[in-house]
Write a structure and sequence with these properties.
This protein is of the alpha/beta class and 225 residues long. Helix content is 38%, strand content 24%. It has two domains: 2-122, Rossmann fold, CATH 3.40.50; 126-221, Winged helix-like DNA-binding domain superfamily/Winged helix DNA-binding domain (Arc Repressor Mutant, subunit A, Orthogonal Bundle), CATH 1.10.10. 26% of the residues are buried.
Length: 225
Amino acid sequence: MTILALEDDTALCKGIELALAATGRRFALCGSIAAARAAMQTDPPDLFRLDINLPDGSGLDFCAELRKTGVKTPILMLTANDTEIDMVAGLERGADDYVAKPFSLAVLRARTDALLRRGSYTDGKIIAGGFMFDFEALRFEKNGQAVELSKTETRLLQLLFTNKGQTLTREQLPARIWPDGAEYVDENALSVAVRRLRAKLEDDPSKPTYIKTVRGIGYKWRAGM
């Protein structure tokens, strides 16, 4: 999972990063709103952590901007402004939670973890890293754009994503993707299904970052997302 930290105090940012470090959790440290806009385009975060007072504007205004553009990713405001008016202002602009400095790292860690859990599942939808997967309604999106998947691609995606970080072998997958006749499926069918799914989900299918090949064994969805 990726946390985008918008904070101009680099030392504080790095200290919090060390305190909140966890397996598969990555941080995009941004010292300005401009840098945050650029970072979220290349690696859509699973959580925004925003300061209010920034060199090129207000974190409150950036929070409101994110919500107006349809971003549903959880937002945690982290700032020295601890008055009730500031807290209400942050929540009214779309923040999900608010932590004032000075703060307890234990509390910050707990609230961060809670927001990341909340961001992963919303009304049965899985939201992560710019993707929205709704396996019940068969609706899929990437960066807000609808993605049409076949039945085979949907089954493959669900198997990989719900077992993210784990390698599913080429022997295991066919029987679970084609339960009513895997023995009749061409041996290249799995490779074709993986290639087609990558073409729809990866930024560069020739250099996949989500659906990873484990050479000689099978495939896995990358861990930490």
